[in-house]
Amino acid sequence: MKKPTLWQRFRYRFDNMMSKGTVSLLIILGIITTIVVVTGGLLAMALGGADGTGEETPGASIWFTLMHAINTGVLAKEEGTVPYLFVMTIVTLVGIFITSFLIGTISNGIKDKVTELQRGRSRVIEKGHVVIIGFDENVTSILEELVYANENRKDAVVVILADHDKTDMEDTIRDRIADTGNLRIVCRSGRPDAPKDLKVCSLDTCKSVIVNLEDDFMTVKTILACETLLDEYGNHDAYITATVRDREVLQPAKIAGGDRAEILNFQKTMARLMVQAGRHPGMSEILAELLSFKGNEIYVEEVPAAVGLTLPELNLRMPFATAIGIVRNEEPLLHPGKDVTIEETDSLILIAQDDSETILNERSAPVDEDAFQREPDPPEEPHTLLVLGCSDLLKQILLEEDLHAAKGSRVIIAAEPGKIDPDALPEQESLANITLDVRECKIFARHVLQRLVNEKPSGILLVSDTT
Predict the structure, then answer these.
(1) N or C terminus: which one in the chain shows less Cβ crowding within 10 Å?
(2) Non-local CB neighbours of 98 within 8 Å, separated by 6+ positions
(3) What is the helix (H) or strand (E) element at residue 273, kind and residue range?
(4) Residue 222 in contact with residue 201, Cβ under 8 Å?
(5) What is the layout of strands, in order, in the sheet containing 434-440?
């Protein structure tokens, strides 16, 4: 290989310095300006100055030369010997070049900084904020619930980190949510599983992390990265909430998140909600009310004044809330029994309109609980459920239905020809209470639907096709 020349080495090092950004360019311009001004000033003094007497001091000569470099109008009024004017002309021409280059460098630096800010790479300086990782169709619903949840808080903050353009995310949020109330939304761009990008969200001071990603593998990686950073920062109060779609990924996600993570299986959760809503008319409205922050919702609070009381006694003294359970030793207990008293270390599971509504009144009069009429639950009888369509959720729905249905129940699964995936159905041998009746038919035809309805199902469940 041919040995590089001195000029090639100089150009290589100069190119490296130029590529380091605005600061390096300003340093180079400063060095060039200093060399030109000092050299020109000393040379002008050696030539005797403007009047040729040579009585000017070095400092004054350098200062006057600097004025020539930064102000081209000085040269037009200059008088002196020909060599002196020649030196000042050279200094002025170099000054024009340096000034033009300086203006361009500063302009590009400002433009690059604005572009960097628009990309959302700067660190968030907040405390007690919620971090949402991922940006998809579900983000709007999550933000709407957080808007309701923070109606009684001032300057609540949500930070969204996703591998999307920051400006696009902000425009989408503005289009879909007209009023964010007290909630301030900050968007940042970056990879969800990259610790460097996660640090931008200030996990050391956040209150909670919501992982909202469609890819289960990326979800596990992100949970692991968040758990590592939270431990590194010593933030032991923050917790992680995430959903996984594949049931096989549930256990790895729980291992990645440790004790601070709450991992929800999307398919299992949705299957339970759909089965319960189908078995009990009106249940969907109740679930929507309880799981939404609009209206009444579920809270977990410590109420010292409730210590020593049972849940029935407590509910008679709370005018704006209802206790449905307790949290003891980090385990939730719903309806623990009317004789179980609340201990000092217990937290209450409440249904209330707001988390500030826990008020206990004095009990005014004894209550005769024997006067309450309690009817026994009617026995479960075999029934027929009609399912229209086939999806990835169907297997989990059928397993959940089998847990609650009476023995001898039947499920008719009707879908378009070729749409039923055998892997989406459980094996009949694994079902204890229901019998599957799979039919491929034109479910969009009126006469086919009429024939299916004539079998008098107790409920009809519509699921979207897998493809």
Answers:
(1) N
(2) 29, 32, 33, 36, 69
(3) helix 266-279
(4) no
(5) 434-440, 409-415, 384-388, 459-462
Q: What is the rounded average pLDDT for all residues in the chain? A: 82
**Residue 354 carries which DSSP code?**
S
What is the rounded distance in angstroms from the CA atom of residue 225 to the CA atom of residue 198?
8
Burial class (CB in 10 A: 0-12, 13-18, 19+), 434: buried
Token output for 139 = 């983000």
Paired tokens of 30: 């400063």
Chain centre to alpha carbon of residue 104: 38
**pTM listed for this prediction:** 0.67
Q: Which domains does the chain have, with CATH numbers?
A: 15-119 (1.10.287), 130-270 (3.40.50.720), 296-362 (3.30.70.1450), 384-462 (no CATH)
Q: Which two tokens stand for residue 138?
A: 């579900």
Question: What angle separates helix 266-279 from helix 283-291, to the nearest 10 degrees?
Answer: 140
HSE value, Cβ hemisphere, 13 Å, CA-based, for 207: 9
DSSP 8-state secondary structure symbol assigned to residue 341:
B
**DSSP per-residue codes, 54-106:** --S-HHHHHHHHHHHHH-THHHHT----HHHHHHHHHHHHHHHHHHHHHHHHH
Looking up tokens 């024997």 gives 370
User: What's the mean pLDDT in 192-207?
Assistant: 91
Percentage, residues of the chain above pLDDT 90: 21
Cα dist from 24 to 29, 105, 108, 429, whole Å? 9, 10, 13, 73
Nearest CA-CA partner of 188 in 112, 242, 116: 116
Check if the beta carbon of residue 431 is closer than 8 Å to that of residue 398: yes
pLDDT, mean of residues 15-27: 68
Q: What is the mean pLDDT of residues 142-166?
A: 87
- In this prediction, residue 108 carries a pLDDT of 75
| Whether 379 contacts 407, CB under 8 Å | no
Give the residue from 369, 297, 363 showing the smallest Cα distance to 339: 369
DSSP one-letter string for 170-206: HHHHHHH-S--TTEEEEEEES-TT-HHHHGGG-TTS-
Residue 293 corresponds to which tokens in the numbers above?
A: 């922050």
C-alpha pair distances (Å), 406 with each of 230, 292, 380, 400, 411: 47, 32, 6, 12, 12
| Cβ-Cβ contacts under 8 Å for 345 (sequence gap 6 or more) | 328, 329
Residues 6+ apart with CB under 8 A from 459: 278, 279, 383, 385, 386
The pLDDT tens digits for 310-325 are 888 888 888 888 888 9
d(CA 164, CA 159): 14
pLDDT (mean) for 15-20: 64
Per the structure block, which two tokens stand in for 128? 């007690």
